[in-house]
Design brief:
Layout lengths: L4 E2 L6 E5 L2 E4 H20 L9 H26 L2 H6 L14 H19 L3 H25 L16 E2 L15 E2 L2 H21 L2 H4 L4 H18 L17 H19 L6 E4 L2 E4 L1
Parallel strand pairs: 1-4
Antiparallel strand pairs: 2-3, 4-5, 6-7
Helix pairs in contact: 1-2, 1-5, 2-4, 4-5, 5-6, 5-8, 6-8, 8-9
């Protein structure tokens, strides 16, 4: 028989001093935002230039608010609206978990739109630069899901060498050794949504001809994420309070369909940018 791995049950809290605690999930958000900020500073200066380093610095705050507010509100509206509308105070209890990746993306998209309009920045050109680094946050977020022992996979076949038992799963009794072996779907998603999609986006972003087609990189990211998420959902156990939806689909798959459609539309409509308009002390592509 192939031995089954037992989930190591990491402590979700890295450091705690009194009431103050730093969790792996928070560290994943902070790390992805900082890494993304530094990389976008560089990518925004590649021809055609879309923003100044100072503008990218200013956007970090907007991105943070977009990820946190969008992620939380997305979870409230997409997954458990009845619970949170009945108990509104729970919406603020983000430390108890409950963030939506689709909601976080929507929040960042809204932040990009408002920020670019207020600062006279080419919207799709700036969005392309953000899209290149977005897989970093997705990948680290999935690693944090694994560390927290949440969002486990569906039951795995007996021959799978990396099948894992998650003690927090609802069908796991008091003795973890007889738990149902499952797919470590968090790691599957981290590899697809994070590593693989990041490699694709970084490689494509090196092509100036593609960078000049504002919206193309954003569209590729949306389609790539949608495909990765739809595939990953086939290995992930759906949320107990939702279960399977129509035709055996999951909420994650349904929410990914409009993302794929929007991505295809952006790719099809992408055209090379026009001339670069000069501004005092900067060059911003239009």
């Amino acid at each position: 028989m192939i031995p089954v791995l037992l989930f190591p049950q990491f402590d979700p809290v890295i450091v705690q001093v009194g009431p103050f605690a730093i969790r792996w999930y928070a560290l994943a958000y902070i790390t992805s935002l900082v890494l993304g900020w530094r990389l976008v500073r560089r990518f925004a200066q590649l021809p055609p230039v879309v923003a100044t380093p100072l503008q990218v610095d200013d956007f970090l705050t907007w991105a943070t608010l977009g990820v946190v507010l969008g992620g939380r509100l997305g979870y409230v509206l997409f997954y458990q609206p009845e619970l949170y509308f009945a108990h509104p105070a729970l919406i603020l209890a983000v430390w108890e978990g409950g963030m939506s990746f689709h909601g976080g993306m929507l929040g960042v998209a809204i932040a990009i739109i408002i920020f670019c309009r207020r600062n006279g920045i080419a919207l799709l050109g700036f969005a392309d630069r953000i899209a290149v680094v977005a897989p970093i946050g997705l990948g680290l977020g999935r690693v944090a899901n694994f560390i927290n022992g949440e969002l486990w996979g569906r039951p795995a076949p007996s021959w799978l060498p990396w099948a894992m038992k998650f003690p927090r799963a609802p069908d796991c009794p008091a003795f973890p050794t007889i738990c149902v072996a499952r797919h470590p779907s968090q790691l599957y998603e981290a590899l697809m949504e994070g590593v693989l999609l990041a490699v694709v986006m970084f490689v494509l972003s090196r092509r100036q001809g593609l960078r000049e087609r504002f919206g193309a990189l954003t569209g590729i990211f949306l389609v790539g994420y949608a495909i990765a998420r739809i595939i990953g959902e086939y290995f992930r156990e759906p949320d107990a309070f939702l279960g399977f939806l129509a035709f055996g689909t999951t909420m994650g798959q349904i929410l990914s369909v409009p993302m794929a459609v929007a991505g295809i539309w952006l790719i099809v409509r992408a055209r090379p940018v026009g001339r670069v308009r000069e501004r005092p002390g900067e060059r911003v592509a239009r």
